[in-house]
Design goal:
This protein is an alpha+beta fold. Helix content is 49%, strand content 8%. The protein is built from ten helices and seven strands. The strands form two sheets. Strands 1, 2, 3, 4 and 5 form a five-stranded mixed beta sheet that branches. A two-stranded antiparallel sheet has the order 6-7.
């Protein structure tokens, strides 16, 4: 899902009490006084040094929301609790020792910054303990609440949605960006048409440039061509020589173009999200999920290099043919 780690390793199924934290979770730890003071909660400095070292400090977790509070600490103002829950009740605390296995690298969504991941079975155990504390079901909980599917292309979203509906999931349950897919397709089609037109113009100019370079090379090397003919070089060998040079020029130009493209792609993906805000999607919980605005597949880079070499061959065909028609005697006399 595009999640990278700042420290540690990804959560494994064997990590029963392991936790993987978001990049800003350490800043969210509060003292009992801070937790009960709304003003202090709202005015905490998000850039302040964290009070805990998640990877090295001893950590405990509990299904009791008041775990870690002072015994006589009053309940927050305005907190009504669950139905039938006494605000003065002191349920037994059942802390569990947990350990941090990883801290996620900063991202653009809630999960990579403020969320914590645990083994699903461990979460179910904590929910069961919560129910036992209050003698009632704390909330409806049956397995996973949300399943995310990341599509590789925009076109695949519709197919995936149809497949989920065939499995019995209703449209109300499936959260897809269908509202702007058609708009996104239209925008991308227009953008691709514009870039394609620019590419064709650039290709035409490049072809003329390679052809002109090879013609000038032929003129400047007239005497060399004559010498090659005198010492026994065949017309086929001379033609191959010039075609190979043209192909190399095209390949090097393509290599330079691919390199510039990857640099531009990197800049766009790291600094150009604001220019392509329409490509961002909102998840089930409403947080922003950013996507790369530029993706260059390896096969496209390889095809571009091959195509550039072919264009070089086409552009160099006429100059190579001209080189084979030069008279050996007049070529040797040329200065």
């Amino acid at each position: 899902m595009g999640i990278t780690l700042q420290e540690g390793q990804f959560l494994q199924s064997k990590d029963e009490w392991g936790m993987m934290f978001g990049s800003a979770v350490a800043q969210n730890f509060m003292t009992a006084r801070e937790r009960n003071n709304w003003y202090m909660q709202m005015n905490r400095d998000p850039n302040a040094k964290p009070k805990v070292d998640l990877m090295n400090d001893r950590l405990q977790a509990s299904a009791d929301y008041s775990f870690g509070m002072e015994t006589n600490t009053p309940v927050e103002e305005g907190y009504e609790g669950y139905e039938g829950e006494s605000q003065n009740a002191q349920p037994p605390v059942k802390p569990h020792n947990v350990n941090a296995v990883a801290i996620m690298a900063p991202g653009d969504d809630y999960e990579t910054t403020s969320a914590a991941f645990m083994n699903i079975k461990t979460v179910q155990l904590l929910m069961k303990e919560r129910e036992e504390m209050w003698g009632r079901q704390a909330r409806e909980y049956n397995g996973y609440e949300v399943t995310r599917i990341k599509a590789t292309t925009v076109a695949a979203v519709e197919n995936i949605t149809a497949a989920l509906q065939d499995m019995g999931f209703s449209e109300n349950i499936i959260q897809t960006p269908t509202s702007y897919i058609s708009e996104l397709k239209g925008t991308m089609a227009s953008l691709q048409t514009l870039l394609g037109a620019m590419g064709i113009i650039s290709l035409f100019i490049a072809t003329i440039g390679i052809s002109n370079t090879m013609v000038m090379s032929t003129v400047e090397r007239t005497r060399e061509i004559g010498v090659m003919k005198v010492i026994g070089a065949s017309l086929r060998d001379i033609r191959k020589l010039f075609l190979l040079e043209a192909a190399i020029i095209g390949f090097l130009g393509g290599l330079l173009g691919v390199g510039v493209s990857y640099i531009a792609s990197f800049i766009l993906n790291n600094n150009g999200q604001s220019l392509f805000a329409f490509m961002d999607a909102y998840s089930y919980y409403g947080e922003m999920m950013s996507s790369d605005v530029s993706i260059i597949p390896i096969w496209l880079s390889a095809a571009s290099l091959g195509f550039a070499a072919i264009i070089g061959l086409i552009a160099g065909f006429f100059p190579a043919q001209r080189a084979t028609t030069i008279s050996a005697l007049s070529a040797i006399r040329a200065e």
